[in-house]
C-alpha cells in the first residue's frame, strides 16, 4: 500500500491524547463512594437494559464524563440500569470498542469520530452531542522563538501524524505561506510527531523548540519555562472549536433511544453544574482522574489547563467540517462524505426540556 494511501486511511485515528491526572483534593474526593455508582433503588431499567457502557479518556478535555461519573449523575439518570465505564488512551481503541459492542456511547475527539464514520461508510456511529472546546496551544522556547515568524526553521512537536493538532498546525503553516511535506514533516518548519507523554522531556532536552499540543501538555511545557505563543482558539470564529464529542453506536441509538436520552440528559446536567461550579467541578474531575490513573497534576499545570477548556453541549459542527477540510487541503485525507455524521435530535429534545437553546448540525445531520 502506498505510504500516502496508508496515511490517508489512518488520518484522525487519535483524539486528544492522554492527559495526566489531577491532584486529589477538596469536594470531589468522594470518587470511590460506591453509593454514587449504584443503581437507584426501586427504579425501573431504562429501555429494559441491565447496563449501559460508556467510554472516555482519562483526559481533562473529557471533563463531562469524569465529573458525571464521579458525581453519580449518569447513574442517577439511568435509574435501575447500571452504568459501566471503560477508559481509553487513544481514539482507535475506543472506536474498535464501539464497533465490537464493548461500549455503547463514548466521549472522543473529532478526528477519530470522522475516521470511524468514513471508514465504515457512515454505518457505525453518530455524533450526538458536544462536550468541550479549546485547550490547544502553540508553546515555544522564548529564547529561540519570540514572534510567530520565528517559528520558520524551528522544530515543533505535534502529538501524532494526522491527528487533530497535527492537521491544525499544518494548516496554520500553510496560511503563513511556508511549505512542509505533510507526510515527512520536513520543510520550512520541522514538524516532529511526538507522544504527549514524552513531549516535556523532548522540550527539556532541546530536541524540539516548541509544540502545538492540547492541555495539559501545553501547561506542562510552560511550567518548564516555555511561553504560549498562540492559543488555537484565537484562530476560530467566536474562539470555539470542537475538541471532544459524544458518539454512539448507530444500532444502540436505534434500539435504545430512551437510554441515549438519559445519558444526554446527564451530560447536559453535568455540563451545567461544571459551568456553574468550576472549582468544585475541577476537584471532582481531579478525584476521578486520580482513581482512573493514580497520577496528579500540580496546581501550576492544572489551573491554566482547566481555564483554557470550555465545556459545552454544542458539538460545534461547523468546526468539525472545517477540520476535515484542513486535512484534505494538507493532503492527508481524501474528500470525505460526512453527510449524516450527526444526529442531534435526541440532544435537542433534552435541551428543549431543560429550557436551553437547541444546537445545529451544520447541514451534516441524520439522513
TrEMBL record:
Source lineage: Bacteria, Bacillati, Actinomycetota, Actinomycetes, Kitasatosporales
Keyword field: Cell inner membrane, Cell membrane, Lipoprotein, Membrane, Signal, Transport
UniProt-annotated location(s): Cell inner membrane; Periplasm
UniProt protein name: Lipoprotein
Protein's organism: Streptomyces spinoverrucosus
Organism domain of life: Bacteria
Any Gene Ontology CC annotation: plasma membrane
MF terms (GO), sorted A to Z: ATPase-coupled transmembrane transporter activity
Family, similarity comment: Belongs to the bacterial solute-binding protein SsuA/TauA family.
Primary localization: membrane
Signal peptide bounds: 1-31
Cited Pfam families: NMT1_2
Amino acid at each position: 500500500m502506498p505510504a500516502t494511501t496508508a496515511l490517508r486511511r489512518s488520518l484522525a485515528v487519535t483524539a486528544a491524547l492522554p492527559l495526566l491526572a489531577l491532584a486529589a483534593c477538596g469536594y470531589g474526593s468522594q470518587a470511590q463512594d460506591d453509593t454514587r455508582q449504584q443503581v437507584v433503588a426501586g427504579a425501573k431499567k431504562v429501555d429494559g437494559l441491565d447496563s449501559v457502557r460508556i467510554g472516555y479518556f482519562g483526559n481533562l478535555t473529557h471533563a463531562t464524563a469524569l465529573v458525571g461519573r464521579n458525581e453519580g449523575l449518569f447513574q442517577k439518570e439511568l435509574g435501575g440500569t447500571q452504568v459501566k465505564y471503560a477508559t481509553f488512551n487513544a481514539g482507535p481503541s475506543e472506536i474498535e470498542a464501539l464497533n465490537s459492542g464493548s461500549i455503547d456511547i463514548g466521549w472522543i475527539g473529532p478526528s477519530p469520530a470522522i475516521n470511524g464514520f468514513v471508514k465504515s461508510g457512515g454505518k457505525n456511529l453518530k455524533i450526538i452531542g458536544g462536550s468541550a472546546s479549546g485547550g490547544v496551544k502553540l508553546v515555544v522556547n522564548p529564547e529561540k522563538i519570540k514572534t510567530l515568524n520565528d517559528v520558520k526553521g524551528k522544530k515543533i512537536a505535534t502529538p501524532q501524524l494526522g491527528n487533530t493538532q497535527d492537521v491544525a498546525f499544518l494548516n496554520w503553516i500553510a496560511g503563513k505561506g511556508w511549505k512542509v511535506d505533510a507526510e515527512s514533516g520536513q520543510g520550512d518548519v520541522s514538524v516532529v510527531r511526538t507522544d504527549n507523554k514524552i513531549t516535556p522531556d523532548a522540550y527539556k532536552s532541546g530536541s524540539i523548540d516548541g509544540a502545538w499540543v492540547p492541555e495539559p501538555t501545553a501547561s506542562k511545557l510552560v511550567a518548564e519555562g516555555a511561553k504560549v505563543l498562540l492559543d488555537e482558539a484565537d484562530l476560530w470564529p467566536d474562539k470555539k472549536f470542537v475538541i471532544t464529542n459524544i458518539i454512539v453506536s448507530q444500532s444502540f441509538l436505534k434500539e435504545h433511544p430512551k437510554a441515549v436520552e438519559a445519558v444526554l440528559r446527564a451530560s447536559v446536567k453535568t455540563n451545567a453544574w461544571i459551568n456553574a461550579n468550576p472549582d468544585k467541578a475541577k476537584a471532582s474531575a481531579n478525584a476521578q482522574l486520580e482513581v482512573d490513573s493514580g497520577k496528579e497534576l500540580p496546581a501550576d499545570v492544572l489551573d491554566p489547563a482547566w481555564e483554557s477548556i470550555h465545556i459545552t453541549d454544542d458539538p460545534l459542527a461547523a468546526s468539525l467540517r472545517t477540520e476535515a477540510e484542513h486535512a484534505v487541503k494538507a493532503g492527508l485525507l481524501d474528500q470525505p462524505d460526512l453527510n449524516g455524521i450527526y444526529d442531534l435530535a435526541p440532544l435537542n429534545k433534552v435541551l428543549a426540556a431543560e429550557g436551553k437553546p437547541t444546537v445545529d448540525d451544520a447541514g451534516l445531520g441524520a439522513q
